[in-house]
């Protein structure tokens, strides 16, 4: 059985942590100088492991195993959110490097802009999956400062470079190791999570129209307060969703905006952003059915009109059973009773790659559940256990 | 009995409407060139009626009756909201001019910035009541563009002018005629409203603190969603307030803001602006008691903390019974059965002047309840009836 050099793996992570360091975390926005430096550093690491290293026109860094297959693809992303953590993404990339260093037949990839600094989302993984058009790249701009993606690519020296695509049939599957970014593992004293699937987000906008009017001069009986109708609809959703949701579903109202939003004016409009997530399509459909009748019921009772709009309805990415089985066996062998199957509530490159090949993810605990923050952290021994289990699972799966 | 020249009164109103005309309404923000033109025009009208006309350091225009008392004070405001109506304020000022023209012993006043273009509110009436300090004028800025009040006064040619105060004991009472700005009169086929009092606004801020977190990675059981706690508290207020409010109370949530307000982030903070209004202090206190225990109950049940802050608690201005009696008698004489007593849901200069002398208001219908909009309007015959009744009431009250 191949032994993973966990010391070298941790050394890699700590070395990468120095590029764009911010307090105990990292600031490496996509295509920034620090991000490009980390990509060049990664290519050196890949070459040192005997892989053929390259960077493509969207910034994907790829290390191609030179020997025969069957191959696995292992990776994640290497840029970070602003002033954020040192492990989110980097962990999965360096785990790939660790597996390659150990001689396993893996290609390693760092998919550009999983963190979505630029409009579009998952640009790198979608590009390598053949889903990103030139037109979309032309349109995309930085979400923070509006820089066109084309300009950022040019400034990073990537203009005119070809974009790579996955070689059909080359990989038996894709493994991504990642921090949990939640508190489930830590809270239950567990050390590993075998991901069952990546939830789909069904994102909605609810627009409520009433009648703007004077808060003093308009009686309670005659007013058509869109903010109040929104409150009552959201309270009804809060009461009803536990009945219809799945065991691990989440539903969230991220934004409520009243118009005009002044203290003495009855709101004539309310704008709500509401989403729910689950890994099962029947459950998602059940929640949609519930949401729709709650809106219908609101329109039956209220003097304001609610309009429901689906902004996006992603498809859950189900992890491959055989890959999961290999992870579970490896987890049980190395940390008996200290792992659980669980969905990923957050999006990952794996959900894109899953459209092209079997995919699976392995979680390690997040201390305090913190992520997208420079205080993000995981104990060294959990990082080491994770990459060990990943290596063992990769071997099992390749042999199966 | 003194006869009010309603033709001249309407002519005055239509002439004033031309200054700063905007569609069928008027755009005369405080201290703007159009506003200052209207104040000069008003001083001419006051002088033409035999009054001693002046303008003071805050922009109050005053017409002082030259003969013996007892005197009444009659007035309102002459500036408008942006692109708003032709009658809001102007009506009460020209009604004063009409009474003076008819020979009644009235002083007429147009109090500056009742509409609150500058921070502070009711600057003119508070100034003449001796309640506006130089320090407050120093601090005040335009709410729309931040222009310091001092700069606006200087640009209007008012810098260095003394500010007038009411002569103690000179006036038996203050009458303000105003459009209703609601639909009560029109809706019930009535032509006049004898105002019982001006509601006080008790304005609150409710700040709810939870824990910002990932909408996908955080389970429903562990999240501390400040937006949801806000929704549930507001729904509870909506359910409870009808039990404890007064017959004509209003309560309104004008603003809800979730932080950070992003679709995939559980709000860690919610900020709510909530107010209630009534003309009775015991009722206001009952609603405060209710609000406080609803917040306490929220803090008992929720995992988020709600903090209640009183931003302002005005005192209702009760109208003088003798002045009201005179209005009622005049209304019944001129429009039998077509009037009602009613509170004013909106603030007026009368609430400030009421702190210095007996005060009372007379409402005329607003077509469609529209105000603070250029489509604001009232039928000529209702305007004429109103000023006739005001004149008759003034006579009765002076004689009583």
Please report which band the strand proportion of chain A falls in: under 5%, 5-15%, 15-25%, 25-35%, 35-45% or over 45%. Answer: 15-25%
- State the end-to-end distance of chain A: 14 Å
**CATH-assigned homologous superfamily of the largest domain in chain A:** Zn peptidases
Multimeric state of these chains?
A: homodimer
Describe the protein:
- The structure is a homodimer of 400-residue chains.
- Chain A is α+β, with helices and mostly antiparallel strands and 400 residues long.
- The first copy, chain A, folds into two domains: 6-199 and 316-399, 3-Layer(aba) Sandwich (Aminopeptidase), CATH 3.40.630; 200-313, 2-Layer Sandwich (Alpha-Beta Plaits).
- Helix content of chain A is 36%, strand content 24%.
- Chain A is built from twelve helices and 17 strands.
- In chain A, strands 3, 4, 5, 6, 7, 8, 15, 16 and 17 form a nine-stranded mixed sheet that branches.
- The first copy, chain A, is globular.
- The two termini of chain A are 14 Å apart.
- Chains A and B meet through β10, α8, β11, β12 and β13 of A and β10, α8, β11, β12 and β13 of B.
List the helices and strands and how they pair.
The structure is a homodimer of 400-residue chains.
Chain A: H1 6-17, E1 21-22, E2 25-26, H2 33-48, E3 52-55, E4 61-64, E5 71-76, H3 90-101, E6 106-110, H4 123-128, H5 134-139, H6 149-155, E7 171-179, H7 184-187, E8 192-198, E9 200-209, E10 213-214, H8 226-244, E11 250-259, E12 265-266, E13 269-278, H9 281-301, E14 305-313, E15 317-318, H10 321-334, E16 339-344, H11 349-353, E17 359-364, H12 380-399
Parallel strand pairs in A: 5-6, 5-7, 7-17, 8-16
Antiparallel strand pairs in A: 1-2, 3-4, 4-6, 8-15, 8-17, 9-13, 9-14, 10-12, 11-13
Helix pairs in contact in A: 1-3, 1-12, 3-12, 8-9, 10-12
């Amino acid at each position: 059985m191949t032994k993973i050099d966990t010391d070298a793996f941790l050394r890699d992570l700590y070395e990468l942590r120095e590029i764009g360091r911010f307090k105990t975390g990292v600031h490496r926005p996509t295509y920034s100088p620090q991000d490009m430096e980390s990509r060049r550093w990664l290519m050196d690491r890949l070459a040192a492991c005997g892989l053929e290293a390259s960077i493509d026109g969207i910034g994907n860094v790829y290390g191609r195993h030179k020997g025969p297959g069957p191959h696995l693809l292992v990776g994640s992303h290497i840029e970070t959110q602003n002033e954020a953590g040192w492990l989110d993404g980097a962990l999965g990339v360096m785990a790939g490097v660790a597996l390659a260093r150990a001689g396993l037949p893996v290609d390693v990839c760092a998919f550009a802009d999983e963190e979505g600094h630029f409009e579009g989302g998952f640009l790198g993984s979608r590009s390598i999956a053949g889903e990103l058009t030139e037109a979309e790249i032309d349109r995309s701009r930085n979400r923070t400062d509006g820089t066109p993606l084309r300009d950022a690519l040019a400034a990073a020296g990537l203009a005119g470079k070809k974009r790579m695509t996955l070689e059909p049939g080359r990989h038996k599957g894709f493994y991504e190791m990642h921090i949990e970014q939640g508190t489930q593992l830590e809270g239950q004293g567990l050390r590993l999570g075998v991901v069952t699937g990546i939830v789909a987000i069904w994102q909605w906008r609810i627009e409520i129209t009433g009648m703007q009017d004077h808060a003093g001069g308009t009686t309670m009986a005659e007013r058509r307060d869109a903010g109040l109708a929104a409150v009552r609809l959201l309270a009804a959703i809060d009461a009803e969703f536990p009945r219809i949701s799945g065991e691990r579903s989440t539903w969230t109202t991220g934004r409520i905006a009243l118009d005009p939003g002044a203290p003495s004016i009855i709101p004539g409009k309310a704008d709500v952003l509401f989403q729910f997530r689950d890994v099962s399509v029947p459950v998602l459909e059940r929640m949609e059915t519930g949401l729709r009748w709650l809106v219908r019921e609101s329109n039956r009772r209220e003097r304001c009109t609610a309009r429901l709009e689906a902004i996006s309805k992603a498809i859950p990415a189900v992890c491959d059973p055989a890959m999961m089985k290999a992870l579970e066996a490896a987890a049980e062998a190395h940390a008996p009773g200290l792992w659980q199957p669980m969905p990923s509530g957050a999006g990952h490159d794996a959900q894109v790659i899953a459209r092209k090949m079997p995919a699976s993810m392995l979680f390690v605990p997040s201390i305090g559940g913190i992520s997208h923050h420079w205080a993000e952290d995981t104990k060294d021994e959990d990082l080491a256990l994770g990459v060990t289990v990943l290596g063992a699972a990769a071997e099992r799966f390749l042999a199966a």
